[in-house]
Write a structure and sequence with these properties.
Strand 3 and strand 4 form a beta hairpin. Helix 10 crosses helix 14 and helix 12 packs antiparallel against helix 14. This protein has 15 helices and twelve strands. The longest helix has about 40 residues. It has about 400 residues and is α+β, with helices and mostly antiparallel strands. It is elongated, with a radius of gyration of 32 Å. The strands form two sheets. A six-stranded mixed β-barrel has the order 3-4-9-6-8-7. Strands 2-10 form a two-stranded antiparallel sheet.
Length: about 400
């Protein structure tokens, strides 16, 4: 029998335990641990969830790595064509970690309706385009099919259809400026088959996705000429390393750029979330630890006579300390139980019902995303228990200073 554990268990289950002086302090300590765990779980899940969701959205509309010409073009429009006859297309077999390559082209235009007009960028895609990347953001209609004959089907954002007073099934005229001076713009009529809403204002306010063959004809390109290539990798965490290898395996006339480099201002902002999460974890663990130290000290002072009796019977200091450490561990586990239960419940509610909304202009998403990972939750619990237990070794040292003679002396 573990004597220390047995005594600690008897102390916890004793009737006078709940009515003692230390009872309210113990409740506060348990509540502090529970609240701290809730804050840690929610902050980690929502922080990582927001980072991943924004990465997914940027990748869905740009790929992970963009291969284009050195045309010194700061806009989103491709000017100089690239031949599709590359050793990395359609399969980038020379670089491990690349799972897909797709050809695209972009051209600026103006959509004109009877009541409004909007400047847009038509993104031309072909039969190799991975529609599954944006299928998640499709809110109405269906995705177009560019695998057969040339057609006028396009996918447009909800932001643009609201400003242009359009809907699924409507057609509209788009005008593209010719590069030659004093030439009338080229007109194309497109039909809306699907409407998407990414929540990413930079994409929603700009892009219309259509058949790349329209742009090839407008630019007078050949069927084997495109504007750029979008490369997708297996692991986003390896994007920089894969990007370097892709750069080495492409022609010297081509430039490669990862989305981290292209949207550096967004990813620098996302890195701040890591710092914020660390600050929250440190503060919450510190608060929980301080409350547990206070609770343990009160428990020790309240049981001074019992400590004196145990020492008089021959118990060693470490043995007595273990009794109170077991007691403190029980309080920690109890607080963690309620913290995990409430925290995970809140995350599940947000994940399935999306009650907390966010402004997409500031956060690039419509609702707070959740990344529920049991590994992270287990690690947070283990970290909290370990730190609290190690810190509690210090106040438990006061037991060694308690004299049996003074503790059990009758006044």
């Amino acid at each position: 029998m573990n004597l220390e554990y047995f005594i600690a268990k008897r102390l916890i289950t004793a009737k006078d335990y709940k009515s003692s002086i230390s009872a309210p302090i113990i409740k506060i300590a348990i509540s502090a641990i529970a609240i701290g765990m809730i804050m840690m779980i929610v902050s980690v899940a929502t922080g990582i969830g927001l980072q991943q969701k924004i990465r997914e959205k940027i990748s869905a509309f740009n790929g992970h790595i963009i291969i284009s010409n050195y045309d010194n073009n700061l806009s989103e429009v491709t000017l100089v064509p690239i031949s599709k006859k590359q050793n990395f297309y359609p399969k980038f077999t020379s670089v491990k970690g690349v799972n897909h390559v797709q050809a695209i082209a972009t051209k600026a235009g103006i959509i004109r309706t009877e009541t409004a007009f909007e400047g847009i960028i038509l993104k031309g895609v072909g039969k190799d385009y991975q529609w599954k990347n944006i299928n998640e953001y499709l809110i109405s209609g269906k995705l177009p099919d560019f695998s057969q004959d040339l057609n006028q089907e396009v996918v447009i954002s909800q932001f643009l259809v609201n400003r242009l007073n359009l809907k699924v099934g409507d057609s509209f005229n788009t005008f593209f400026i010719k590069e030659e001076q004093n030439k009338l713009p080229i007109s194309r009529r497109f039909k809306i088959t699907g409407i998407f809403n990414s929540g990413f204002q930079e994409f929603d306010a700009t892009y219309v996705i259509g058949d790349i063959r329209h742009l090839q004809r407008i630019n007078k390109w050949g069927p084997d000429q495109v504007g750029a290539f979008e490369v997708f990798v297996d692991d986003f965490d390896q994007i920089q390393e894969v990007g370097e290898k892709v750069y080495q395996q492409t022609s010297s006339t081509l430039d490669t750029k990862t989305i981290i480099e292209k949207y550096s201002y967004i990813f620098e902002w996302l890195e701040l979330f890591d710092f914020n999460i660390i600050v929250i974890l440190v503060v919450m663990i510190l608060v929980a630890t301080i409350n547990m130290v206070v609770a343990l000290l009160v428990l020790i002072l309240e049981r001074t006579q019992m400590i004196g009796i145990l020492k008089a019977l021959g118990a060693e200091n470490w043995s007595v300390r273990k009794i109170f450490l077991y007691n403190a561990l029980y309080l920690i586990v109890r607080g963690l139980f309620w913290g995990n239960l409430i925290g995970i419940s809140l995350l599940l509610v947000q994940q399935y019902f999306g009650l907390i909304k966010l402004n997409p202009e500031n956060y690039y998403v419509n609702e707070a995303p959740v990344y529920l990972n049991w590994g992270y939750i287990g690690l947070l619990n283990l970290l909290t228990v370990t730190i609290c237990f190690l810190v509690l070794l210090i106040p438990s040292y006061i037991i060694t200073k308690i004299s049996p003679v003074k503790a059990i002396r009758f006044d």
